[in-house]
Design brief:
It contains six helices and ten strands, in the order H-E-E-H-E-E-H-E-E-E-E-E-E-H-H-H. It is of the alpha+beta class and 264 residues long.
């Protein structure tokens, strides 16, 4: 049961670690060492674009808005209080930027209104405005939040609208996420990897400790398994110290000279 739980936890750690590695590496490569993120959209032609505080003021760093037109078209861009920008546009047809899509690095937009766009450049409520040919940029500082940006093309249409945000902490966080994921992946692999027995011999530890002898190999067929040292010798051997009753010991020889002396 413990082994199953350990392997389940190991698999979960490995999956989480792998996900963190993929996400961290992807963000690090997309953001670069400077931590710069760019979100782009190609708005519908012939309509002004409104970027709300929900997009501009969601981060701590400054946001740079860049608009481009095709050919020699002129681009106009202005910064204003959110309520003032909405009051100027009223019910005019417009494209409103509502969010960002990090996966595609794109701006999310929606179409609103149905009336004709008014002359935006003549209003005196803009905090900052700029215009130019082909390409115009404006930087939104978070110290003045909340703010809205209105972008329009005096002639032609806006082909590309880009928001650029730079924060070096994002790159650091992506690298840290990848490193944490690598650690979790290694921990999960250790939990999933089958443990080897002691010594790597495949013999249970109890046999190595001497509690239970390891079984030897089976003898081949037809082999005499009798231990010569254990065979009992049944042959009778005479005892040097014992007397044989059937063969009494011979009398010592009598010398002739001794017999004659007795007879005399």
């Amino acid at each position: 049961m413990v082994t199953i739980v350990t392997r389940a936890v190991g698999a979960l750690l490995a999956l989480v670690g792998l996900a963190l590695i993929v996400v961290g590496v992807w963000f690090a490569t997309q953001l670069g060492g400077s931590g710069t993120a760019q979100f782009t959209v190609h708005p519908q032609p012939g309509r002004p674009v409104l970027i709300t505080p929900d997009v501009l003021n969601r981060v701590d760093g400054d946001v740079t808005v860049t608009a481009t037109t095709a050919g020699d078209g002129r681009v106009w861009m202005a910064l204003a209080n959110p309520s003032d920008a909405t009051a100027v546009l009223k019910d005019a047809r417009r494209v409103e930027v509502t969010g960002v899509d990090v996966r595609d690095w794109a701006l999310l937009t929606t179409s609103r209104g149905g009336g004709e766009p008014p002359a935006l450049g003549t209003a005196d409520l803009w905090r900052q405005q700029d215009d130019g040919t082909g390409r115009v940029s404006l930087t939104v500082e978070q110290s003045q939040a909340p703010e809205s940006v209105v972008v329009a093309a005096d002639s032609g249409s806006i082909t590309t609208l880009t928001l650029t945000v730079t924060d070096k902490r994002w790159f650091v966080e992506a690298v840290v996420a990848a490193l944490v994921g690598l650690f979790l992946l290694a921990a999960g692999a250790v939990a999933l990897w089958p443990r080897r027995r002691r010594g790597g011999t495949g013999i249970p530890s109890t046999a190595l400790d001497g509690d239970t002898p390891a079984p030897g190999p089976a003898p081949a067929a037809g082999t005499d398994t009798t231990d010569p040292a254990a065979t009992t010798d049944t042959t009778d051997h005479p005892d040097p110290g014992a007397t044989d009753s059937a063969h009494p010991p011979a009398s010592p020889p009598v010398h002739r000279s001794d017999t004659e002396e007795v007879t005399r």
